[in-house]
Specification:
Blueprint: E1 7-11, H1 18-29, E2 33-35, H2 36-45, H3 49-60, H4 66-78, E3 86-89, H5 95-104, E4 109-114, H6 117-131, H7 138-152, H8 155-162, E5 165-169, H9 174-187
Parallel strand pairs: 1-3, 1-4, 2-3, 4-5
Helix pairs in contact: 1-9, 2-3, 2-4, 4-5, 6-7
InterPro entries: Adenylat/UMP-CMP_kin, Adenylat_kinase_CS, P-loop_NTPase
Region (NMP): 35-64
Enzyme class: transferase
Length: 192
């Protein structure tokens, strides 16, 4: 099997570890890691018009409209050198965003990290104590998990139909999940 360039999106419920796993994969495969959360925070910190809009959604724990998110991601992706691949975390979050992104920059693997709501909730509560992130306040955690089930979970079917879905359980240690993920990717022809 010929070695493939990794052009991956990684998704899962809040607290699934997708950001951590995405960063580890990007390091392993020597490709850029692109976190939509960082893109949003950058826009917010710069107080751009998009950033001001984004802040309203981040603070409420609700997902931003597709047009806003697509605009931020599209602009950022065009400014990066992605010829050797990428790992994208936190985007797309809806089927419409996924369809938009497939036209912009087709992915060849969509990694779904599955964890139960209970595990996600516990992880987010612990993270809240450590980082004091405004989007992890107790009342917004449940909203984020509900939003995930309603809007983002359907991505699994979208990517399954495209033949690029890779599911992995995220309830083990960071190191174990990473090791299993790298092995599964290798079986698909993605070798660092």
């Amino acid at each position: 099997m010929r070695q493939k360039t990794l052009r991956a999106v990684i998704f899962g419920p809040p607290g699934s570890g997708k950001g951590t796993q995405g960063r580890l994969l990007a390091q392993k495969f020597h490709v850029p890691f692109i976190g939509s959360g960082e893109l949003f925070r950058s826009e917010i910190e710069q107080q751009t018009e998009l950033g001001k809009l984004a802040r309203v959604y981040v603070d409420s724990g609700c997902l931003a409209p597709d047009d806003l998110v697509n605009g931020i991601v599209s602009r950022q992706m065009k400014s990066l050198n992605l010829k050797n691949g990428f790992v994208l975390d936190g985007y797309p979050r809806t089927v419409d965003q996924a369809a938009f992104f497939q036209r912009l920059m087709p992915v060849n693997v969509a990694i779904l990290i599955k964890v139960s709501d209970e595990i996600a909730l516990n992880r987010l509560k612990k993270r809240r104590k450590k980082e004091k992130r405004s989007d992890d306040l107790a009342e917004t955690i449940r909203t984020r998990i509900r939003s995930y089930h309603f809007l983002t979970e359907p991505l699994a079917q979208f990517y399954r139909q495209k033949g690029v879905l890779l599911m992995i359980k995220g309830d083990q240690s960071v190191e174990y999940v990473h090791e299993v993920l790298v092995k599964k990717l290798a079986k698909l022809g993605f070798v660092p």
